[in-house]
## 1
Amino acid sequence: MIESYDESDWLAGGKQTVYDHGSGAYGEAFPTLSGELSTTHNTGDLMFSSTFVTAPAPKNSGLGPIFNAVSCASCHINDGRGDAPADGGSSASLFLKVSEPGQDEHGAPLNVPGFGSQLQTKAIFGTQPEATVTVSYTYETGYFQDGTSYELRKPTFSINNTYILLPVSTLISPRFARPVFGLGLLEAIPEWEILSHEDTYDSNGDGISGKANYVWNIKEQKTSIGRFGWKAGVPSLMQQIAAAFSQDIGLTNMIFPSETSFNQSQYDHLNDEKELSDSLLYATVFYMKTLAVPARRDVQDPDVIRGRQLFGSATCINCHVPNHRTAVNVAFPDISNQMIYPYSDLLLHDMGSNLADTRPEYLAFETEWRTPPLWGIGLSQAVNNHSYFLHDGRARNITEAILWHGGEAIIARENFRKMSAADRAALLKFLNSL
Ligand SMILES: [Ca+2]
Ligand SMILES: [Ca+2]
Ligand SMILES: [Ca+2]
């Protein structure tokens, strides 16, 4: 499945590539936007950074009753990752998805009675948060083949102060906020292109068996391929963002018309349908759709070029597929027919028991995660002042993220563990050029 990729991959987002490499690198608009489209993008940008408040209020009203944060931007800081969870503490940018064993008629995880599908750890005055969540770490030492030691930390999440008893059967999946740029381009990759990388039963025998998730599309009332979220459990930006307004902040909208506390003992029975207007929802979706991708740096550096070869020979490329071409889109030429370099196949892979959660999501098992795009990863430090990775933020840098790979990625991880210090440095230099 190793394929050749061309030399133009420094233009990570095709014609929607930008050259900001500072703290705003993830937050630039498509350079091709103008006129009315720019205005809509800016309206969405304002929604993304707005702080929502308790109803009734003249502006940005509808927060809660239960929520995880007061704005999109407080979790996706600078359109990037969240704040890293500290040992013994909690992180506002990380939440727990929860479910009961089993599936509904569309294959979705079952809501936990009284808690729904996500634990809200904050609440407005007069309402109790569903729970508090804290994380603690256990540390273990490992060794590269050359004898150099490394240390990995494994998180344990504790749920306390639940407002009613949390059923013991509750399944849990921790989720750390991810960067949100380039998503319109990912949404524009044709479905057949994603499916062409599937190998569910590993018929080519390389140990890798990516599979697509299929999830319920609420707006279209049909099953669609999943693209967003750590388990590819969400079919579209529209659904992801409507869910974020509803679950993360507490704003009812056209896709999720009921408060998340609906049917719970704390439900206030107020008729507060559609706290978010359709036009502001569309503007926020358009904003997410039209965030550009930062260009690569140092592409001519000999170590970077060597690191890129090592990325191929270590078989990273089998899942972190470098490039895709977006579909032709006559209605929205800005997104049409672009060669982009996200370094992901958007498919699910078994990553081994060490990375597993306990909550399946549609077709994604406990051990399975969507290959996250690696574009822009070298700018994490510049944008978010940290380099914490993986679905729960446990990796403190790229090296640790790679060393956690297991399951289908065990060969790739061992290839990395066996590399000389110089080769590891070259591979990291390549990743930091993305
Ligand atoms: Ca509300
Ligand atoms: Ca909940
Ligand atoms: Ca295979």
## 2
Amino acid sequence: MFARRVAESWEVFGRSDPYFGVLNAPRFREAGEEGPARAAFFATGEEHVTGLFAAIHESLCPDFAPTRALDFGCGVGRVILPLARRVPDVTGVDISRGMLEEAQRNCGRAGLDNVTLLEPRELDSSRATFDLIHSYIVFQHMPQRMGMHAVRKLLTHLDQNGIGALHFVYASRLPHWRTWVHWMRKRVPGVHPALNVLQRRPLRSPLMQMNSYDINAILRVLQECGCHRVALRFSDHGGWLGVMLLFQRRTQLDVRVT
Ligand SMILES: C[S@@+](CC[C@H](N)C(=O)[O-])C[C@H]1O[C@@H](n2cnc3c(N)ncnc32)[C@H](O)[C@@H]1O
């Protein structure tokens, strides 16, 4: 039931307002059209991937140069495009067909032919493995139970010595009024559509869910899946506190502390 609700919401975002569904800051309001807002939107992806590789080189593996990368929850391809300029073979997975179609158009516009785009069930039924698995600002939009299930499945596709970079929200320090507005949007009929209109969104645009994860639960999955080298980088997206967990699937032998 969770999965169906998440899928339906993202299908609406993917069809009606995919760019704003990915980054909902006012400066990307016009990113749906070719122009400066779209260029700024994709520049954030380039910056993200530059930072990602720098963090991996600094914390886990100085000469890491992946050959097959997976971006889980790829949206319109904001991270896929810079990945595909650095990695020979890139796969993007997304629950929303609308997002995948726009990602395909963006790869075409960028002249990139080394990208495969899949729905989650297509990845589940494949035996493909990757030496880099990445996901950013995705798990926060699904309930923890569903997210942890997805993480376990994703890790079955990570090569030995491969690197994972998965982002989670773990706490919030939103001002009380924002928590209150979110509660009103969820519970009081009419508030959410009215605020959609005020924010120049489609009237029926669904409420984007935000979920915090228990870091202990994530660490346990990493340990059980043999990912024994772990580093992290913090994030703060408007009061939603998060971590990008960087880890390597590697036996415990070479990191044992005695
Ligand atoms: C906020 S967007 C981020 C897109 C991309 N990661 C980026 O940083 O540009 C979240 C994306 O996750 C996708 N998504 C949400 N739940 C998913 C799931 N269970 N499986 C795969 N994709 C999912 C949504 O369709 C959406 O494209």
